Amino acid sequence: MKDKARRGRCPHRPFASGNDSVRLGRCGHRPLRYLLGSAALVLLSALLSLRFGAASLSGGMGSFIFWYVRLPRTAGCLLAGAALAVSGAVIQGVLHNKLASPSIIGVNAGAGLAVTVCCALGALSGWAVAGAAFLGAMVCVLAIVFVAEKAGASRTTVVLGGVAVNAFLNALSEAITTLIPEAGMLSGDFRVGGFGSVSHLRLIPAGVLILLALIAVLLLRNELDVLALGDETAKSLGLAVRPLRTVLLVLCAMLAGAAVSFAGLLGFVGLIVPHAMRKLVGSENRFLLPMCAMGGAAFVTLCDTAARVVFSPYELPVGILLSVLGGPFFLLLLLKRKGGRSDA
After folding, report:
1. C-alpha 301: how far from its chain's center?
2. What is the CATH number of the domain that holds 172?
3. Is residue 52 part of a domain?
4. pLDDT by residue (tens digit) across 160-218?
5. CA 219-223-229 angle, 5° bins
């Protein structure tokens, strides 16, 4: 009976063989439907974000509000959501750990500390902030993976170590802003995560980095599929595992760091969205990565719009809403993995 139930259900799994290939052929149109649906959802979320807000678009200031407030804010939501979701999906694939995400293993915090130091030094240009965030995220993620590999740590230990690093780096950022108040000029939205202060000057440099990294990750989608089979299998198929892992992690750092440079320390996007997208289209990266990009873009944009409109005339930073949604989601994942055993 169980075998019949499995045969009657579309698995959406990569590297299928035998009868699995037949089943994949029968249901291969479903991911395409989800991709089209996600594209429509992205468009709808962008239109809602541009249309609704605390101020009306009618009147003399309507044009200014649209071009210099709503448009960069909406573009920022789309870019940050896509970057963080894809970064989370790739990190989970590279580390073989579905509990990993940029905010949980300390990547966001590393980028945040670098931005704080950058501001403390007086370097406030868009390129300087985006570059500092990328370098901070890259150093953090490479350090965590290096230590884990050298110590032979389990996958769960990587997550727990990342949580500790996350707390340590956030404490350093707080210390810097306390000692150098000028460094806290971006601390409002930045520490919680939000798009209230996004401008064209801050968005364009980060947007260029995000788009380049997204293209590079999509080009490496097949290699990421092979890497997901395990290091030994990937090596036997001729894949240079260590260099590939390094390149993918650098791209993840570029995505997360660039997003943090203008969106602040948004949490859980890289955890929630990849899990939701895997439920829809499976783990094959030619479908998963585009779905994560569009799903993350729509998710963050809709959350930001809700945070602006639902609590009007007050504006709730979207990072608070994402934490409210992501915290219970992370605990649920831990419970499903029976207390976070080492093979998680």
Report:
1. 13
2. 1.10.3470.10
3. no
4. 777 888 888 889 988 988 888 777 665 556 778 889 888 888 899 999 999 999 999 99
5. 150
Structure tokens at 314: 């007050």
The total number of structural domains that make up the chain = 1
Whose CA is closest to 269, among 323, 335, 310, 208?
A: 323
- pLDDT band (50, 70, 90) for residue 25: very low
Range of the domain at 183: 72-336
DSSP state of 57: S
Model's pTM, two decimal places?
0.86
pLDDT over 60 (residue 85): yes
Q: Is 195 exposed, middle or buried (0-12, 13-18, 19+ CB in 10 A)?
A: buried
- Asked if residue 44 is part of any domain, the answer here is no
Tally Cβ neighbours within 10 Å of residue 323: 19
Q: Where are the alpha helices (DSSP H) in 70-199?
A: 71-95, 107-120, 126-151, 155-179, 187-192
| Within a domain: 138 | yes
Reported as half-sphere exposure (CB side, CA atoms, 13 A), residue 205 has a value of: 18
Furthest C-alpha separation in the chain: 68
User: In terms of residues, how long is the chain?
Assistant: 344
Tell me whether residue 60 is in a domain. no
> Would you state the structure tokens that stand for residue 160, as one six-digit string?
């727990």
